[in-house]
Write a structure and sequence with these properties.
The chain is of the alpha/beta class. It has a single domain, classed as TIM Barrel. The chain has helices spanning about 25-40, 60-70, 90-100, 120, 130-145, 185-195, 205-220, 245-260, 270-275, 280-295, 315-340, 350-355; strands spanning about 1-5, 45, 75-80, 80, 110, 150, 160, 175-180, 195-200, 235, 240, 280, 300-305, 365, 380. A 9-stranded parallel beta sheet has the order 3-2-1-13-10-9-8-5-4, with helices on one face. Strands 6-7 form a two-stranded antiparallel sheet. The longest helix has 26 residues, at about 315-340. The protein is globular, with a radius of gyration of 22 Å.
Length: about 400
């Protein structure tokens, strides 16, 4: 099971000091968080994508490539990549490049995005959000699996004989999670393709997450990808950790009370009772997180939101230390002891390569110089043995 942290990249006023960090300070802080996550023994760092204030992460691949260069083991990923307002061709190219630069230490989570003004900025209509998500992902899925794509849809210009470059590392597409707060159609999309489903798991009661994950598991099995328990599930979650519960409550309360996402509503105690938010000691975080398995079953990835609501960097780094030293080691051990042997491991690039090729060498796509400008049609690529092949591996001619 993989454990990590994620950020939504908000720039929020610190209610204790009254200061608001600059964009430069928050970007630097997020990089330091990711490096700290690897040092603390965590597995994953994720960043959201936003194109409007008060957020800074408008170019996740740039940020994640930098983090990948500063780390050696950490998996870098997104806590949202907008499949609606982004051109799927650009997603295919940018994330394939990230896959190469990180040597496969990456994946991504696709989402629709629910900030209405962003859609027209990129020439789209939020009322078409679901059709956009379905059509764009259908194209992205093909772009990563076919060397040459002919395609026509409703939301972008047609493609004829198009090749997305670079081709995926080892000719194995990045693993895709489909993330959703409340939309069963996105869970259906994940199940249809046999991809992973990431339940946001913040702000909502556990019953909502349970229904979404159960639906995804049922549809995963319906589409023939395996049993329901073999479906790939990830969960989010919010936490604030201190050495003891009293300190955690005292330290986090002013941030909770003024946070734009949940301030002026239920009390912190009510919110932690009704939702996955955990404010407390390492043991309280362990106990509540282990309880997630009771209503979603065995799952593969757990990410914690630790830097929201204006929290200062020092407090965030302390939480990452506590996660790495006191929380995650216990969670690894306990989840492993409870795990059903039929449940697959968390997806990794190495695992996907092994599943596709076994002990054989992976295909390494390269432009086929013998074909010139490819006027004869077919694939413009040859494999590492310099044999011209179709996108499906058969020898051509």
């Amino acid at each position: 099971m993989q454990f990590g942290i994620f950020s939504v990249s908000d720039i929020t006023r610190d209610p204790v000091t009254g200061t608001t960090p600059s964009e430069a300070e928050r970007i630097d802080a997020v990089v330091r968080m990711a490096v700290k996550a690897e040092e603390a023994g965590l597995d994953v760092f994720a960043i959201g994508e936003h194109h409007n204030p008060p957020f800074f992460s408008s170019s996740p691949t740039t940020l994640l490539a930098h983090i990948a260069a500063l780390t050696t083991r950490l998996i870098v990923t997104t806590s949202t990549t907008l499949i609606t307002t982004n051109d799927p061709v650009r997603i295919a190219e940018e994330y394939a490049m990230l896959q190469h630069l990180s040597k496969g230490r990456m994946d991504l989570m696709l989402g629709r995005g629910n900030t209405a003004p962003v859609y027209p900025w990129f020439g789209q209509d939020i009322r078409q959000g679901l059709p956009l998500a379905l059509e764009h992902y259908n194209l992205l899925h093909r772009l990563w699996r076919e060397d040459v794509v002919d395609w026509e849809g409703h939301f972008r210009t047609p493609l004829q004989g198009f090749t997305s470059t670079p081709r995926p590392l080892d000719d194995v597409p990045p693993f895709v999670w489909h993330g959703s707060i409340r939309t069963p159609e996105i869970a259906e999309q994940a199940a249809y393709y046999g991809d992973g489903f990431f339940a946001n798991h913040i702000f909502w009661p556990k019953e909502h997450t349970q229904r979404m994950v159960e639906f995804y598991r049922q549809r995963f099995e319906h589409h023939g990808h395996g049993t329901a328990k073999q479906a790939i599930v990830g969960l989010g979650g919010q936490t604030y950790i201190a050495k003891n519960s009293q300190d955690a409550h005292e330290e986090f309360r002013p941030y909770f009370n003024e946070a734009p996402v949940y301030g002026n509503g239920p009390t912190m105690e009510q919110f932690t009772e009704m939702t996955p938010l955990t404010v407390g000691s390492p043991q309280e975080v362990i106990d509540k997180t282990l309880g997630f398995r009771d209503y979603v079953g065995d799952y593969q990835r757990q990410l914690f939101l630790v830097d929201h609501a204006g929290l200062p960097l020092d407090a965030v780094l302390d939480q990452i230390d506590l996660l790495g030293s006191e929380v995650v080691p216990v969670l690894r051990r306990e989840f492993a002891s409870l795990r059903d042997p039929e449940v697959p491991d968390a997806p990794t690039h190495a695992g996907l390569v092994k599943a596709k090729y076994g002990d054989a060498q992976p295909r390494q796509p390269r432009p086929n110089a013998n074909r010139g400008d490819n006027v004869t049609g077919g694939s413009p690529y040859q494999d590492s043995e310099a044999v011209a092949r179709s996108p499906f591996g058969e020898e051509l001619g």
